[in-house]
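Suppose you are handed a protein chain with no further information: no name, no annotation, nothing but its sequence. What can you learn? This example shows the usual starting point.
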Amino acid sequence: MSEPRTALVTGGARGIGAEICRQLADRGLRVLVGARKREAAEEVCRAIGPAALPLALDVGSPLSVTEAVREAGELLGGGGIDVLVNNAGVSLDGELRPPYLDEEVLRATLDVNLLGAWRVAEAVVPGMVRAGYGRVVNLTSSYGSLALMDSGRHPAYRVSKTALNALTRMLAGELAGTGVLVNAADPGWTRSGMGGAAAPRGPEEGADTPVWLATLPEGDGTTGGLFAERRPLPW
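A reasonable first move is to predict its three-dimensional structure. Written in structure tokens, the prediction is:
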């Protein structure tokens, strides 16, 4: 019997991230639950069961990313990570809108939403390429779509997600033909720490499209796309 695929989910301790972990485990994957606080990851793992393993991971810290991937290799007995779901993200904007700029907020937002995803991808994607199989899912937002952008609300968040969309397209192009598929998923306005209690969608719905993209079957060539509710959105 072959070993199950292994997925790493960043920001996996709550909300959509925790639900993505649960749904992936339900589909037979072994799941590394990444969270800044190991205790929070352990709590999610207890709820999921033995298919989930806790991993201390702060995507805003290059050192933390390096240490987490090293630890993941030890936990997996030398095995690799087959699926990466870049879910960790922040929304730090207040009421400020362009042309006014809060550089500190922009830098802090980019450091997690863009550079955090990039750091983790840099650490794990080469192993996927060597294995000839991989799925990378970047959680984004329609707020980052240039085609749909019509206001300056949440400016730092929007810019960070637009940049993440660009990273998704670049990675997909670079990895074409390697067996590694790279896509972006908009979970929609979902009840979570970021989305708030008024959001119309529950975490189960928000996790559906990311999990679908994370488990695309071999032979499926879907890559370089932006999806919401399993349907394409314009970039």
